[in-house]
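As a warm-up, study this chain.
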Amino acid sequence: MTSDAPNPLRRMCWIFPDRESTRTGAMWRHYFWDMYAEVAADLGLSWTRHATDAVTVDGLEPGKPRVYVDDELVAPEDTLFITALYSLPYQSMDVFNQYALYAVLEQTGFYLPFPPGLSPIANDKAAAILYLHDSPVPPIPTIRIGTGRDVGKHLYEAALGSLTYPAIIKPTGWCGGGGVNLARSAEDIRGLASLAQGGDTTLVAQPYLGDGTIDYRVYVIDGQPYAVLKRTPEDGSPVANASRGGAMEFASMPEELAEATAYFAEKLPIPFFCVDFLFDGERFWFSELEPDGVVAPDFDDPDRAIQRDITRARWIAYRNGHARWLAARGAGVAEAGVGVGAGAGTTTAFSGGVATT
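Now compare it with the structure written out below.
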């Protein structure tokens, strides 16, 4: 439950390696970023976007670090940081700086709604499948393929004996439907792997579920299935993302997915995340996690009411999580730690409950 005491949270800082082009940045602002800031402002909060180099830490006095965002002093009582890893090709040079800053922020005592220890699991499609192997909705079978200097030796083919064709081949750490290809033979995989080598991009191989496979994104807020986005691929496309021509609509929540949410919430006791499922016409498959999954716009509605509602519920869940974290911290329950163990320990302070004002 959330304390009735006033919450001093004033600022949500999203750490994002903003290397978008002028065109893409304008598109993201129109689709998501401006909306996120508007909804936060309605709640008396600010939502701001910052590259890793915007954060400066003064650690000269042992045990009393001072953290600045740009030139503004911030404190754990009034500020939280959103720290989901981004690793698209043009962000690859920022991966270490993202991870390092997450660790620094954790050690300086800030509330991170998405603990750093979970980033590698959520960001790597194979890691997510392995971590959630006992999901009530079966994970789609996955093979992880490294594409280093010996990719031309095809040593990874030792693991492909049971792979059926056609198969989906895609980067393990990308998002937005980028890099998804259909391979009809091992020779196709060889070609794709050699291309991936140029960017040192690790791949996953998965069985293709067939033309017209529908993607369902479930928005999970404070452990509850809050909304579902249905994405239908364009004819002939192997992926349903809007960036690849897919159609999007908010739909009714399939009962099977609603029931499965309890499992995912137990494994990921954090205020907000998305789970993507694939439907092949007969059954659902668990596909991947999105800890910072975008809240898509409902363009049929000029007010974009659904997008606003989901975003509002997300920010409230963060605010409530921050309040619970502060209460636990004040009681001496929350302690700073290092690495995955620390991340897991942090999550226990903000699990459970439905977002409320």
